[in-house]
Structures are given as C-alpha cells and as structure tokens.
C-alpha cells in the first residue's frame, strides 16, 4: 500500500541489532495511511508485516542506502533535528495477523506550512522470529507535508514526457502503480494521440516511461482494469489524420508490454465509455465514428455497443442503447448495473441535440425513461458512498454545435431517479469530480466559455452531500480542462495532464496548449 502524508513524523532510536549480517528476505512489510490528514489532524499509520515481529520506523530526508551491522535499508540516516524525544512513537510489534498502527498529532509543525515543499522518506525495519536482530524491511514511502485544501505537484517534481489530455488513468491491481496511457498532444479538443504510456508510482511520487510503446497511438479512448490485472485499451483517435480506430490492445503490468487483441465489433469509435460488468466482461457504449472536424464528430454519434470477453480476448456486438450518446458518462453502480447519462444524441436521424436523458444497463439490456433536470455533455460523474450519482458541469444544449458551459449539478438516486439539482461556482466543461474519504466531492478545473472556444479555469470546489451545496476550495496550481483525476487510497486526489484553452479578444484566434504536469489535492 502507499501513503501521502501531510505532517512531519518523528523517528525513534532503532531497536537493538545483532552483529552478524543476515540474508534479507523479500520485502513483505508495508505502510499505509487510510484517509487524509493535514497539519492539524491526527495521522494514523496502518502497518503490515510478519506476525509477532518487532519493528521500528525510520525517517530521513534522503534516499540513500544506509547499512548497520546486519541490514542495509534504503533511506539515509535519521536526521536528529527532527527528534522531539517521542522515542516510543516508531517502535512496536505486529500482532498475530501481522497488523499494527501508530498515530501522531503533528501540532508542533502546524505553524510551519512551508515544510510542504520538503520531502521525507519512511521505511519499516523488523526483527527475526526470535531476538531483536533486524532482518527485514518494507518498501520506502514518501512523507509529503501539505496544507489542508491545497494543491501541489508531486514531491519529485516529475512531469509527463509528452502533453496529455483526454487520456486514460488506470489504478493497477498493484495499487501503488497507476497506468497513464495516450491522450491528445496539443490541447483539449485536439485529435492527435500518442503511443507513449507512463507509470506513476505512489510510493515515491515518480513517473517512469513504460519501456514498450502502445500498439496504437490513441486519444479519446477507454481503459479498463480487467479481473486478471491486465488493462484493456479500446478505440480512440490515432495520430495520423485524427480518425477513430477500431483497434484494441491489452497492457500486461508484469511484462510491461502492450499486445493487440483484435478489433471492435461495429467499427471504430472514440469518446465512448467503457465499464467492467459483474461477470468480468467490458461493455463499450456510444462515442463517435468520425473525428475529422467538430460537425463530423457530432453527426457521427453512435447508439451501438460492443462487449469484450477477457476469457477469449474477443469482441461481440452488444445491445443498442435507447438513444445515441457521445461525451456522456457511464457510472458503474454497486449492484453491477451501469448508469448512462447525457451526452450528444441525434433525433430524427440527423438533428444533433445535447441530451437530458439517462438509461440503465443491467448486464443484458438497456432501460430508459430517466430524465435529468437539464441537458449536459462533457460533464463529470461520480458514485457517492450512498449509491447516488453526482453529475457536475459539462456543457448544455443552447447551441448544439458549440454548447456553452453548464453551471449546475444533478443528483441521481436509485429509488427516486433524478430528484435534486443546484448550482456550481464556475463553468466546468470536462472537469474532474472525485469522492473524498468523508463523502464530499472535489470538483476540479474544467472550462468555461463553450466547447469549441474553451477557457480553462484554475478554480476548484467541494460539493457536500449533506447540505447539497458546492463551496469554493483552494485553486489548482494550473488552469486545466480535459484532465483526468483519480482518488488515491490515502485520501488525496491526483490530477493529471489536461489542456489550457484561452479565448483572447478579437481579432486573435482561440488557442489551446497541452499540459504535462500533475498535482495533488490534500482535503
């Protein structure tokens, strides 16, 4: 597991060590922090290791191998100027299930928020089955200080090697690793994908380029974690003329390779959605089969679906949706169903409109008859702990060929359908929307203006499910839209890439810039 920490921890004196070097076993201890913390909050560390063993926590500002008589560990010597004589904080024993926990209230550091730029590293050392001789260790975890309700770049200061917007971000089965694949190079609505993928490691907040290229360059594609740990990448637009592709591939996280798995049934599609079903299959819904220009994209909106079987690595046609959908959302529900909401649709065979409808896929067929309080496309959607689904922002149907930013949220309840709506504080086309540990939702970035002339925003806000009010919070470091965000197990939120849209006064033309940066929100 991993942790992003928002306070400074204090390392104790090490346990007594023997003088004879021992063979160090594979790392089988771990550090995790469930939920977020800030300077003025208690921080609880959940530790895992061999049952019954004694352990000590080590802290250092350096990544530097350090050897003591019988073990070498991976961080530098402890910095004594951090020691406030809490000698019992970092020592303890794993119980019969290999569990332990330690808590700290970092009040002495509350007056020094400037420490949020200072990286610290933590590692657990543990003893043998008998005696006090240290013989094993955990991996290294970064301790990252951060002020509450703020955004900051990863401590390593790492950026993507290429611009990415409308890319995919997939948390792998090894939850310390995140796969970032494809994306636009050059802006929010560009159509030239990349075939470069990178791995973000949460333990040290670093990026590493996957050594093998993707089979197909793509943007506006989908990525789905399969039950066997592979990642399925489907469709999107390529890097030649920006046309959608019907190619699919899988990423093997062990071999770090991409392998083709055939073609989508029904032809190419981009800007579609993909959801894993209860039986492990994956359904792809809607999208467009034309990516040449905005009008063609809209008129190419699809009403078909295709289903991938991971056992046979094959695609087959799925049932048609109740209506065509492009730039919609598809949210997997706790019971295995999928809620599809909004997006572009086509009526009377050729007239595009922004939809105010939703429908449910139950694993076999679609059922409709659901209506939002307004129409929206390019919005955000997130499943709440209550089982409800929050839809935020996007663009409305005031002009179907250049929809304007929508300044509302909509809430779907599985028993009452869409029953509540309210205001958000900024225009947010292609925003991020992520649930925090306490059930609130942080809504980040997006664009105001319109879909063709987006003006990216730097603001963020938090929607509270108890009051159903959205309140501004700390702003992003960089304005961005079309970024992809993901909640992390330590309670923070990682935001990746996106684009910047600027709409200057006439006679200048709107411009767009792609982003390579990442940032993290501390609630």
What does this structure look like?
The protein is mainly beta and 523 residues long. The protein has 2 domains: 119 residues, S-adenosyl-L-methionine-dependent methyltransferases, CATH 2.20.130.20; 372 residues, Neuraminidase, CATH 2.120.10. It has 1 helix and 44 strands. The strands form 13 sheets. Strands 3, 6, 8, 9 and 10 form a 5-stranded antiparallel beta sheet that branches. Strand 34 and strand 35 form a beta hairpin. The longest helix has 6 residues. The protein is globular, with a radius of gyration of 24 Å.
Helical percentage:
under 10%
In CATH, the architecture of the largest domain is 6 Propeller
Largest sheet: 5 strands, antiparallel
SS class:
mainly beta
Number of strands: 44
Mean pLDDT: 85
Shape: globular
CATH-assigned homologous superfamily of the largest domain: Kelch-type beta propeller
Work out the helix count. 1
Number of domains: 2
- Fraction of residues in β-strands: 35-45%
N/C terminus separation: 20 Å
Topology-level CATH name of the largest domain: Neuraminidase
Radius of gyration: 24 Å
List low-pLDDT spans: 1-27, 79-87
CATH class of the largest domain: Mainly Beta
